[in-house]
From TrEMBL:
PANTHER family with a match to the protein in the record: CHOLINE/ETHANOALAMINE KINASE, RE24176P
Name this protein carries in UniProt: Choline/ethanolamine kinase
Family indicated by similarity: Belongs to the choline/ethanolamine kinase family.
Record-linked InterPro entries: Kinase-like_dom_sf
GO CC annotations, alphabetized: cytoplasm
Amino acid sequence: MSEMLKNLNRESQNSENRVSVEDQLKVYELCKTHLSGHWSDVSADQLVIKRVTGGFINKSYCCSLPQIAQTGHDKVFIRLNVDCPDKFFDKTHELVANIFASQTDISPKILGIFENGFIAEYIDCHYFTAEDDLNPRCVALLAKKMAKMHSLDVPIAKDSHQFLMKNYWDLFAAPIFESYKKGHIYEEIQRHKLQTFMEMDLCDEMSWAMEVSVGLGGPVVFTHNDLMRRNILVRNTCHTNADDLNVFIVDYDWNCYMFRGADFADYFIDWCQPELDFGGNDFPTDQQMGADFADYFIDWCQPELDFGGNHFPTDQQMYAFIDAYISEMSALSGDSYTKRVVNSRETLVMEAKIGIDENPEYLLKAEANNVSVEDRLKVYELCKTHLGGHWSDVSADQLVIKPTT
């Protein structure tokens, strides 16, 4: 559903955005069968159907009744899953996850389900943005939704984190290692003269991060596993603190039982970062994608993104989200939740940071724009030793340190 927002109100003349007669009839029959009422009284050519572009593994549509037949749900979102052989995408699991999330107000209400998709209520909303990161109500709402999601008892395999951790390397490790040796990652290291990465073995560091994430022993819960901004929707309201403000988590393609830190990491890695207008330029052809599919995801003919250009949130800044999460988990699980060290602020911060350390692209951009860990510690010790006072009361990661050029 998150793919719908950008193109919903923009008419496109491109043929690939037009709805084929076959799909138009399919959408009409789905609405007529599952929604009834006025949806059964209109003809297929009376429905206003717009193709929602941007999805990689599905077809999505926004469907509206004509003005003369407005009803309770006069506009809906329809998602049709296409055949996807990838072992990571279990369409049955995805549908089950969407139903559970819908019933608990984590995602928009599902109005109908069918073999290869679903119909959901239409929400007038926008993607979660850097501005929303600074709105305490939005942050608290998202944290509470994540807590609800992590508390769900979804009837899918509970040991799927072992499968995901193992097959993550099968799917991603080979191209990443190859890129590190002589591809895009290698070029980025050389271009930015990232001394730390020139002297270390990034592949070993990634392996270490995976081992540590397992060694932390964080709870395995039902997770989203792709909690980027475009999978978080914020209801549009008359002002930022309106009573009907709400946040929804959508698109459960990657859902499974996994270490909870994965979702925390996905959120904080985007915290207050510049917006990426992904898809703003023409979508590549199959031939163009075939040249180097992995690098397409990084920067296919898109505006330059200074990812990591802003500072990663300090522990103090992370607490707003984490405290709201802990509060909701306590309400859902009882007061005993906060009595366990594994559920402390400090532990959740650590799980989030370890999850982020597994993302090599973020590390490269962050290293290019920020101070290395070694230099940060050196500067911290100098300030602490020679300045005293409040300089001795803060930690190394609380200092704001910028390199001068």
